[in-house]
Amino acid sequence: MANAAEIATAAARADVRNRWWLAAPALAIVLLAAIGPLVVVVLYSFMVKGDYGDVKYWQFSLDGWFSVIFERDVFDDTLKLADAHLTILWRSVKLSVITTLVTLLLGFPVAYFIATCDRRWRDFWLFMITLPFWTNLLIRTFAIQEVFRNEGVLNSALLWLGAIKRPLQIMFTDLGILLGMAYVYLPLMVLPLYASLERFDFRFAEAAADLYASNFKVLRRIIIPMVRPGIIAGSILVFIPSLGAYVTPRLLGGGRSLMLGNLIELQFGQGRNWPLGSALSITLTGGVMLALLVYVRAASKSGSGHHG
Amino acid sequence: MPEEKSAIEICDVTKLFGDAFKALDGVSLSIRKNEFFTLLGPSGCGKTTLLRLIAGFEYPTAGTIQLHGKDIATLPPYQRPINTVFQNYALFPHMTASQNIGFGLEMLGRPKAEIAARVDEMLRLVRMEGLRHRRTTELSGGQQQRVALARALAPTPKVLLLDEPLSALDYKLRKEMQIELKRLQLETGITFIFVTHDQEEALTMSDRIAVLSGGRVLQVGNPREIYDCPGDRFVADFIGEANFLSGEIIVATKDRAQVRLASGADILARLPDTAPQQGKVTIIVRPEHAEVHADGRPSPLSGTLESIVYFGTDTHLHVRLAHGDRFVVRRQNSPLQDAALVAGATVGVAFDLAAAQILRN
Ligand SMILES: Nc1ncnc2c1ncn2[C@@H]1O[C@H](COP(=O)(O)OP(=O)(O)OP(=O)(O)O)[C@@H](O)[C@H]1O
Ligand SMILES: [Mg+2]
C-alpha cells in the first residue's frame, strides 16, 4: 500500500524543489547584487590599507574600524576622538531628519491636492512631479546652484525687490544642502503619499465631519492615521538616500559642509584608506537599518489605535 | 407656532450637478419631530442627494432647509446636530467599536467619564457590550451596522439620517434589524429619516413615506395612504403590485365615477380630487382586493385563467382578460380549494367599489 500520505509528501517535496528552481534566478541576483558587494565591503573593512589605495589582502587589521571613531595624533601618537568624523556623522543625521520632515510638510499638501483633484488632471500633475527625474541629478544640482549662488537668480531677485541688502549666503552652507536635498527627494515623498491618499476613501472624512470633527480634526484623527503607511514609506524613501547623499552636499556644500557620503568617497579617493571607507559604509548601512527599525516600530505602534 | 412641530422643513430645494443635471427638482418636505420618515424611490431618484443636503455634505443650488425653525442650508456638517448612518457604515477602521461610538462626543469636547458612560449605554442599547474592544474590521455586517447606529446615536442628534442601512444584510438579519431600528427610534424619540428602495421595508417601518422619482416628490403620506390611495401610476406600480385598467369616465360624482372599461363593461371606482374628473383614465385594483370565480355569475371582467402560481401563504391567479390585458388576483390559501379553478377555465373577475381607484395621469 503506497499510501496517500506518502504520495502527498513526495508531491509536496517535488513542489518545493520546483519552487526553488523557479526562484533560483531571482535568488542568484539578490545574492550577487545585494549580499555579494556587502560581503566584500565587510571583508575590506577588516584588512590593512594599501599604500596607494586598495587593501593588503588577507592581512587582518582593526584599524579601519578603529579610525571611524578615533584618530591618532600625528605628533605624539596619542588617541583622541575623531571629531571631524563625528561632526560629519551628526550633520548627516541632522540634515537627513530635517530633509525628511521638510519633504513631508511640503509633500503632504501636494499629494493631497493631486489625490483630490479632478481625475483628468491627476496624471498631468504626477507627470510634473516626476519630471525632474528625467534629468540627470548632476545637471539638476548645477541648476540649483545657479538659483542659490550669491549672484544667482534668488539673490538677484531679492536684491532687486529690496528685500535684502546683501546676498544671502546659501551656497556652501547646511541650509544649501538642506534645500537641495529637499528639492531632489520631494518626489520620493509625494509619490507614496499620493498612492495612500488616492486610495483613501473620503467618505471616512465625511463621516468624521458628520460627527462634529472640524477640518483639522479630520486631518489629524482620520486622514493621517489612515495614510500612515504612505507616510512611513515616503519617510524611508527620503531618509535613506539623504543619509548617504553624495552629489548634492558635494556641489551645494562645497568642501566645507561634508556629509557621510562625501567622507566615504574621500577614503576611496584622495584618502586612500579603503578599510576606513568600508567601515564607514557599514556604519552607514547599519545606522540606516537601526533607524528604520526604530522608526517603523514607533510609527506603526502609534497607529494601532490606542489614543485618548 | 407651526415650526415647533416640524424637525426638518425642506422648501423648494433644487440640486444641480454640473450645469444641467437636476438631481433634485423643487423638493418640499416637512418632517415632523419624533417621526420615522422614509424616502422611498428607485435607484438614482435623488434619495442620497437629499440626505447629503440635510447632512451638509452638499449645498442646495436653490431652496432652504430648516432644522427646528433655523436655516441650516449653509452650515458645514460638523455644525449640524444631525448624524448619519452611512450605507457602507464608514466605520473608522483604525479604531475599536467603542472608539468609533465615542468619536462624536469626543469631538464635541465632552469629558472622558461622560463619554465612557455614554458609550456603555449605547453598546447596551444596540446589544454589543461584548465586542467593545474589537476593531471594526473584525465585525460581521450586522455588528458593523449596530456600531454605526450606536455611533450616530451617541451624540443624541436632533435628526438621524439613515441611508439604506439594511441593504447589505441578508433577509433574516434585515428583518431583525428593522424591528431593532423601530425600537431604537421609539426609545430615543429622535427623528429618523430613513432611505430605502425596499417598499416592504418602507411600509412596515415608517410613520410617513415620501415617494421620490426623478428628483421630485410624487406623494407623501402614511403607509396606508400610500398603498391604498396611490396618487399616480408610478407610485401605485412602485409600491406593491397593481393591476391597471383603462377606461373612460361616463358619470362623475363627488368622490366616485362610473367608468366604461375597454371591454365595454361599466364599473364604479373611487375618484380622488387630484384625479381627472372626465375623459380617459387609469384605474388601479390591487391583486388581493379582487376575486376570481368560475361559476358564471355576471362580473365586470372576464377572461381565461392562464396560470396558477402557488406562493405558500397565497396563490396568484393570472387571468388573460377578454380584450388582451393581464390581470393578477391574489387569494389567501385555505384548506378548502375551489376545484373549478384550473388553468384554461373561463373565469370572471370581480371587486368592489372601494378596491378600484382612479389615478392621476
Ligand atoms: N456628485 C455627483 N455628481 C454628479 N451626479 C451625481 C452626483 N451625485 C449623484 N449624482 C446623480 O444624481 C442622481 C441621484 O443620485 P442619488 O445618489 O441621490 O440617487 P439615490 O436615489 O440615492 O440612488 P440609489 O438608490 O442607487 O442609492 C443620480 O442620477 C446620480 O448619478
Ligand atoms: Mg443612494
Automatic annotation (TrEMBL), chain A:
A GO BP annotation: transmembrane transport
Pfam family, one: BPD_transp_1
Domain of life: Bacteria
Residue stretches making up the ABC transmembrane type-1 domain: 89-295
InterPro entries, A to Z: MetI-like (IPR000515), MetI-like_sf (IPR035906)
KW Transport (keyword) present: yes
Stored CDD domains: TM_PBP2
Membrane-crossing residue ranges in chain numbering: 20-47, 95-115, 124-148, 168-194, 226-247, 276-296
Broad class of where this protein is predominantly found: membrane
A single cellular component GO annotation: plasma membrane
Compartment(s): Cell membrane
Coiled coil residues, start to end: none
Membrane topology recorded in Swiss-Prot or TrEMBL: Multi-pass membrane protein
SUPFAM superfamilies for the chain: MetI-like (SSF161098)
PANTHER family: INNER MEMBRANE ABC TRANSPORTER PERMEASE PROTEIN YDCU-RELATED (PTHR42929:SF1), INNER MEMBRANE ABC TRANSPORTER PERMEASE PROTEIN YDCU-RELATED-RELATED (PTHR42929)
Membership in a protein family: Belongs to the binding-protein-dependent transport system permease family. CysTW subfamily.
Protein name: ABC transporter permease
TrEMBL record, chain B:
Family: Belongs to the ABC transporter superfamily. Spermidine/putrescine importer (TC 3.A.1.11.1) family.
InterPro entries from the UniProt entry: AAA+_ATPase, ABC_SmlMolc_Importer, ABC_transporter-like_ATP-bd, ABC_transporter-like_CS, Mo/tungstate-bd_C_term_dom, NA-bd_OB-fold, P-loop_NTPase, PotA-like
SUPFAM superfamilies xrefs: MOP-like, P-loop containing nucleoside triphosphate hydrolases
Highest rank taxon of the organism: Bacteria
Record-listed E.C. numbers: 7.6.2.11
GO molecular function: ABC-type putrescine transporter activity; ATP binding; ATP hydrolysis activity
The protein, known as: Spermidine/putrescine import ATP-binding protein PotA
Signal peptide positions (record): none
Catalytic activity from the UniProt record: ATP + H2O + polyamine-[polyamine-binding protein]Side 1 = ADP + phosphate + polyamineSide 2 + [polyamine-binding protein]Side 1
CDD domains registered for this protein in UniProt: ABC_PotA_N
